[in-house]
Structures are given as structure tokens and as C-alpha cells.
Amino acid sequence: GVVVGTAAAGGGHLGTGRDPFQVDERYRALVGSEFSSVTPENQLKWEYVHPERDGYTFEAADDVVDFAQEHGMVVRGHTLLWHSQNPAWLEQGDYSPAELREILHEHVTTVVGRYAGRVAQWDVANEIIDERGRLRTQENIWLRELGPGVIADAFRWAHEADPDALLFLNDYDAEVVNAKSDAYLALATDLLAQGVPVHGFGVQGHLVLERDPPGEGLAANLQRFADLGLATAVTEADVRMVLEDGRATPEQLALQGEYYANLVAGCLAVAGCDSITLWGFTDRYSWVPSWFEGLGAATVLTEDYVPKPAYDAVAAALEES
Ligand code: G3I
């Protein structure tokens, strides 16, 4: 059956704050009781886990992985090759291509190896293609300095470090058939033809009420990847909206429920789409308001943990499967 997960809110340990997952008992308990899969929201990103060239900090990520094990939950690892949230020592360092290759190899080997057998899926390559369907060869340090061949390398190194982990390409705005998802289909086809151990394609599912169609068209898109023999997943679902005076209207919340239901139904309609992750489950810790001024209410529970129509919509859509 399908596994339903959440992001575990975290990333506060770069400053003075600790992770909500570590300090909010109510939140933590709900992660364990409501979900069967968990993704560290930030705790495995380079900036957090590899803050110095010769130093790793695994405490916050370990906490999530240990919790998952205690609760019989699956862990999705996020992420290994990305253009964002890289430490300054990496982005601003002056390394030769050979040194960069070795840095990436060591990182992938160390991080994937540490969690071998405990992290079931990895978003190996995250957001490597832009909306026009082109590789992000400028912003992404790896693609810029090492060329597109580094994508295959990262998958191979991750596979060596944990042969049992399912290895994913992952991106946003790739839910439906469009230039970006077309480019991923071509990339996946090419990697598979080279024998690269790529196992899945994840669509993040960060939808916008006023921008996106209501989550339809997902199944038709994912089916193309299933036809290649790949697993698929919804990896970061949330549905943000424009708030009037900081509040969502009942109409907006009802519509949001439809978007969520369509994401769930779209995944369930495709054989091999076995994993749906919500990017957080309470507005209390959603990433949205701090990123988009005036937008919010993106998750299925209010800041006070009151279920919204979206909560029931997700439950009903899962029920129907
Ligand atoms: O570490 C500081 C902390 O010390 C300080 O107290 C706090 C104050 O706001 O900021 C903290 O860092 C922030 C961190 O989240 C933890 O809250 C960073 O500034 C902020 O950039 C970071 O944002 C994360 C974002 O990725 C960064 O790109 C979001 O939490 C996280 O939800 C978001 O997740 C991404 C996925 O990885 C990839 N797909 C898109 C998705 C949404 O942007």
C-alpha cells in the first residue's frame, strides 16, 4: 500500500533555535501517530549536515532517523545534489574540478553510508532542471563545475553506499506534463540507458491555489515515468494561498481540500506511486509564510492543530484506494 509521510520541521540548529521536531512534544507525537514515513525537512541538507569541509553534524538528522526506527517509519533522505542550502565553504571555496568531485564523492559516501538500511529513499538530485526544461548549469555548483555527467556519478556513488536505497530525481512544478517534466523524462530515459541506478521520480507537489489547476494531470504525467519502470512519489505536498488579513476563507479551504485530494488520487492511480509526503502538517511550522509574503495556510492543520477540510480530503482520498 501507499506510505503517507510528513516532513519533520527542522533546521533551527544553525542558529540558537532547536528544531520544532526536537522541542515540540505535541508535534513530535503527531509525526509518529499520523504518518508512516518522514523526511527531515532541512536536517540532511549540506548546510546542516556538512557545515565545515572536514566536519559533519548528524545529531538533528539522527534524531529523525532514530525516531522513525522506533516508530517503524520509513525515512526519505533529502538531498545530495542541489543548488541551494550549500555551506559557504563549498559555494565560496576555490576548488579544482578534481577536488569538487572528491568532496561530493566523500559526502555522498559518508551520509548515505551512515544511514544505509535506515533511509529507504534518497532524493539524490533535487531541482536540477529549470522551468524551461534546461539543466541548471549556472546555479548548481556541481553541474557548473563538473558538467552533467556528475548526475550519473551521484547516483552511482549513492548506490554503492546503500545498494538497497531507492534513488530519486526530485523537483517542483513538475507535477503535470510540461517542459520541466518532459526534460526529466528525457533525462531518466538517458540515465537508464546508461545503466545508472536511478529508481524513481518525485514530484514535490508545492501547489498554489491561485496559480495551479487543482492538482489534476498528475497521473498522466507520472504514468510516463512508471512506463520506464521507475517508482514515483509525491514528496513535498502543500497547497498555499493568498491570505486576506492573514486568514483563509472557507471557500479557499474547501478548494484546498480538492487540490490535496487530487494529489493523493493522482498518485494512487499510478502503479508504483507508493509514497506521498506532506511538506509539514501544521501551519505552525510551514515554510510558506517566511518565503512568500501574504501567502500561507498551506498545510492540513491550522497553527493550533485543528484539522482543515484538506485533512479530511486527504483521509477520504486514501480511503477510496
Ligand atoms: O537556521 C536558521 C535558524 O537559526 C533561524 O532561527 C531561522 C529563523 O527563520 O532561520 C533558520 O534557517 C532557515 C531554515 O529554513 C530553518 O527554518 C533558513 O533561513 C531557511 O532558508 C530554511 O528554509 C527551508 C528551505 O527549504 C530552504 O531552501 C525550508 O525550511 C524548507 O521547507 C525548504 O524546503 C524545500 C525543499 O528542501 C526542496 N523543495 C522546496 C522546499 C520549499 O522551499
Walk me through the structure.
It catalyses: Endohydrolysis of (1->4)-beta-D-xylosidic linkages in xylans. GO terms for molecular function: endo-1,4-beta-xylanase activity. Keywords: Carbohydrate metabolism, Glycosidase, Hydrolase, Polysaccharide degradation, Signal, Xylan degradation. Strand 7, helix 10 and strand 8 form a beta-alpha-beta unit. The relative contact order is 0.12. The longest helix has 19 residues, at 250-268. This protein has one domain (3-319): Glycosidases (TIM Barrel), CATH 3.20.20.80. It contains 13 helices and ten strands. 40% of the residues lie in helices and 18% in strands. The model has no long low-confidence stretch (mean pLDDT 96). Ligand G3I binds next to loops.
Provide the list of bound ligands, each named once.
ligand G3I
Per DSSP, the total helix count is 13
> How many strands, what sense, and barrel or not for the largest sheet?
8 strands, parallel, barrel
Helix percentage range? 40-55%
CATH architecture: Alpha-Beta Barrel
N-to-C CA distance:
9 Å
- Helices and strands: which structural class? alpha/beta
Number of strands: 10
CATH topology description? TIM Barrel
Shape: globular
Mean pLDDT: 96
User: How do the helices and strands follow one another from N- to C-terminus?
Assistant: EHHEHHEHHEHHEHEEHEHEHEH
